[in-house]
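Reply to dn_fold:

You asked what the input looked like. This is it:
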Amino acid sequence: MAVCLQMQAATRLHTALSAVVSLSIVLSGCGDDTEKTSLTQIVLIADSMGVPIGIDKRSLFFELLLRNEDQLYPKWSNKALLDLYPNMRTVKIAKIGYPSSRLLPELTNVPENPDGRSLVIVAMGFDDFSHMLTEQNLEKVIDSVRELKLNIKQLLRYFQNKTRFPNGVDVVILNHQDLSEGLGLVAPFWPGGGFCSMWPRENNEVAEVYRQMFLRLTAMLASLSEEEHFMLADVNSLMRGHGAWFWLKESPYYYKDDPTFWFTADCLHLNERAHHAIRELIWKLLPERITNPQRP
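and this is what came back:
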């Protein structure tokens, strides 16, 4: 089967002052065998991002991609993958607390797919930085970013295997939400317990390590997406204006039309609003041959 490069740009206007732009290059099969290039399998590889924590399971971004909740989101009633591909196989691997190194062995649970294309959505890596809860060390952060990059490359190689997936794979990888919205700290009077209480509240060396963690993570994934040609879902930018500083009108990310908090009460996981926005972000990234398969 011939191979061609297909470039797709997806833009989401997030505030009146900023825009989220995601650019991806996807390896796509070219040819007349539409049956073999149809989507027949979707795979989720995730840590707690794929597990309902503090929200209903039906509100998870992955579940919404599969089946829209029409009463909550009527404008999306005709945008669900299982409506377009009712016979598509669904594979969900979502493990709370699993760093990327522990998720890799789970790939053997993904069936081979000789019947068509696969769509793989990856939301992993945040638990690679669990050491930040007890020790804020920049050298450890740098090492963890480097290890995560290697693990993502290993995951991509698995799905690039033409024996397992002869008709090709489209890959979407999510980057990571930052409660502090790029500052590395939350307000000294910020209420709430859980992870909220663990965040720095003064602009000091610890806050700088947190800030560097997200800067380096985001930069690594952006660079890797260009190198490896996967679609990058920029959750980090999407969440700006909905983190710990959502209320601050002086913030450059203040979203005057919707100043709301998109985390759950634990300040770590995401609420229903965030998951719906992530579903929307991913949908707009997907190639039209997936979201509109009837178009000639």
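The first strand starts at residue 2 and ends at 13.
Hope that clears it up.
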